[in-house]
Amino acid sequence: MDTSYPREDHLPTPAHKREQSSTTRISLPPRDHLVWSIFNTIYMNFCCLGFVALAFSVKARDRKVAGDVEAARHFSSKARCYNALATAGSVVLPLLLAALVITGVIHLSKLAHESVGFFTYQFSGSDDEDK
Predict the structure, then answer these.
(1) What is the top-level taxon of the source organism (predicted)?
(2) Three-state DSSP class for 30?
(3) Is the pTM of the predicted complex or chain greater than 0.85?
(4) Per residue in 49-72, pLDDT tens?
């Protein structure tokens, strides 16, 4: 059962055209995600996942040029997964770090504001303690 979309063979035909036409399905070549891999390798290289994605992208392109579509799909799928992991890690981790820094600064400012009375020393004019 083929579940690829769009399904052209199940489209209703208009009432005035009832000609039988043979539909040829042209399989699109797999995408190699090479540009995305290069971007992840150069700009957002999280744990070298961008470099691994680049290696799989080059393998997918080589297999596509050689005519091995199934191997190209396999390597393309791996490149897409590594690219997604590298992009997610490079976006989520700085956001998480920024959130931790902001909450730490807020906590420390509240702590410093509450402990101001403990660390202040009053230089008042009461000389009763000196005598």
Answers:
(1) Eukaryota
(2) coil
(3) no
(4) 999 999 999 999 999 999 999 999
